[in-house]
Fold these 3 entries.
Entry 1:
Amino acid sequence: MTENDGKTALLLLGCPQVPVQTSMALYLAYGLKEHGIRPVIAGTTAARRLMETADPGRYYLDEMADLDDAIDAIMEKKRDFDLCFVFIHNDSGIAYAGTMAYISKARVYALIFGEHAEELAEEIEFPCEIVAAKAVHNPMPLKRRLEEVMQWAAVSKR
């Protein structure tokens, strides 16, 4: 037993327009599982299909849900999470992260990537941990930042 047993993390995936999202989401799911935290993937249909295709044996994807259904369940107090990682590459991603910061008890992490990561990070005006890296095709800048955050996530208590 570890202090993380029973903890859950929601990974919110928007439109998979930027290539690094899928690989980084799988990498994060792997890392969370390694720390005893159960990842739940919620995303658009396209984002979920990419994740299913990348992990057909479901080694890292125990549970997946429609993005809007997951948010509705939290709003209706049917479910909540300890951690929430929102993948952001545009304004709608910021809106999802803001919604999660407002409706969920989870510690929210805004994972901002893409060409305009720095500018998007400056738009955030709600409480969350910001992880930003200019990563579009090469996931390594975001991976390095995420590894730092995963250390906090693994030991954080909310």
Entry 2:
Amino acid sequence: MMPTRKYNNQNWLPSIFNDFFDNEWLTRANATAPAINVIESDKDYKVEVAAPGMTKEDFNIHISESNELVISMEKKNETKEDDHHNRRYLRREFSYSKFEQALILPEDVVKEKISANASNGVLTIDLPKRTPEEKAKVNRIIEIH
């Protein structure tokens, strides 16, 4: 079992993924966290983050030193009403959304081939798995001289 980082008591994924994908929120500025799907196939893992209204510029994805895929999003919106002479704001709306989540990467992910796409309110991250040939290279026997 791989160690997981715990930040609160909420579980977002079934416990079977806890060994590979840490599923606790690191930081949330708003009370609503986006829904996340993690899908596994023979060739890859896919992480889908529901993010309506967000664009690719709102996201940041990186791999941490502790082998975690860190997904963060920050969006600031400000709706301004026209300011006319001798008038003052009686209502002005601000919006701020921020979240960050770290997922521990499985050992069979090819980090150099991870890709992401934001489309139609969903951020999709593709995590390709090593092929059997690549796994054999990683598990090679070291000759002793």
Entry 3:
Amino acid sequence: MSDLLFGALALMLIIEGLLPFISPAAWRQVFARVLAMSDGQIRFIGLSSMLAGLLLFLFWR
């Protein structure tokens, strides 16, 4: 089980690192937009992301 967890963590880090590596300017623009959002909007995005990940996890098996 820990191998799967570390594999998932490694894949997440690879995917998260793609945008700043490929286009640092676009990455800065994304963060500038996030800074302009309200807390509620950021929470909604976080909740949506968690629910999408949970659904993918449950139905992927």
